[in-house]
Structures are given as C-alpha cells and as structure tokens.
Specification:
It is a single chain. A hairpin with a 2-residue loop joins strand 3 and strand 4. The N terminus is likely disordered. By secondary structure, the chain is α/β, with parallel strands linked by helices. It folds into two domains: 56 residues, Signal recognition particle alu RNA binding heterodimer, srp9/1, CATH 3.30.720.100; 50 residues, 2,3-Dihydroxybiphenyl 1,2-Dioxygenase, domain 1 (Roll). The radius of gyration is 15 Å and the shape is globular. Helix 1 packs antiparallel against helix 2. It starts with 19 loop residues before the first strand and ends with a strand.
Length: 139
C-alpha cells in the first residue's frame, strides 16, 4: 500500500524494536506529509470516522514503523502539544533528504552541518509540531 487510498487490510509487518506512536491533529494528512517529506509508505490505515478522525495509521519510514492517530478526547486520548522528544532519521544524502522535507512543508530549524562528534546533522519541524532530526554518519 502506498500513498493513494489506504484502507484497513491485513496488518502490515511492524519494523523495528521500538515504534513511536504519535497523536496528531490530522493523522491521514500527517501520513501523506510523511510520504512526501520522508519517503514513507502508508501500509495500513483505518477509515476516518464521521468527524474525519483516524484511529490508526501505520507507516514504514526509513526501515522502521511509525504509527499515528488523531486525538479522541471523549475516550481519554486528548491532543497535546508535542514536547520532550525528537524523531531521528539516520540517512545517507542528508542535504537532499533535508531539502525534500523542507520543500514538502517542514520548517528548517537547523540546517545540516558537520557536528563536533563527526556526523552531519540537522533538525526540522513538521506541520504537525513534531521535531525531526536527520543524522548522516561519518563515511
């Protein structure tokens, strides 16, 4: 399944031993943004409810799973501003990957640059408030 019209089907394999599950305002819109910005693939998505909210979206991003949901405050799952974490993408070709994310609508926070630990590193914020870092290791 890709970015077209994702519908709930057989569960896709979960990739990675630790999976971030984000609550955002517009899970399907965020998933589509992650397809454009980070080359994600939407592998499972529940249909939106009558209010346009989606309970579950599963993406494969950069070899790992990322899961998303809209907030459902009536079920004890309110929307809260993201804080206290950064999602890290380990990448090759950081400058092109960073530029792709910015062109898709991410806000540049720290342009990729050589860091004191020897890697090339940069940060950006997506339109849903999530801070993403990109890190390209030494060659």
């Amino acid at each position: 399944m890709s970015s077209g019209n994702p519908e709930m089907s057989a569960p896709a394999p979960v990739k990675g031993g630790l999976v971030a599950y984000l609550t955002v305002d517009g899970a399907l819109k965020a998933a589509e943004f992650y397809v454009r910005a980070f080359g994600a693939e939407i592998v499972t998505a529940m249909p939106a409810d009558e209010q346009g909210r989606t309970m579950h979206v599963h993406l494969h991003v950069n070899g790992s799973s990322l899961m998303l949901s809209d907030a459902f405050p009536e079920h004890g799952h309110p929307l809260q501003a993201p804080q206290g974490f950064t999602l890290m993408l380990m990448v090759e070709g950081i400058d092109a990957r960073y530029a792709q994310a910015v062109a898709a609508g991410a806000t540049a926070l720290m342009e990729p640059a050589e860091m004191f630990w020897g890697d090339r590193y940069g940060q950006l914020r997506d339109p849903f408030g999530i801070v993403w870092a990109m890190n390209q290791g030494k060659r």
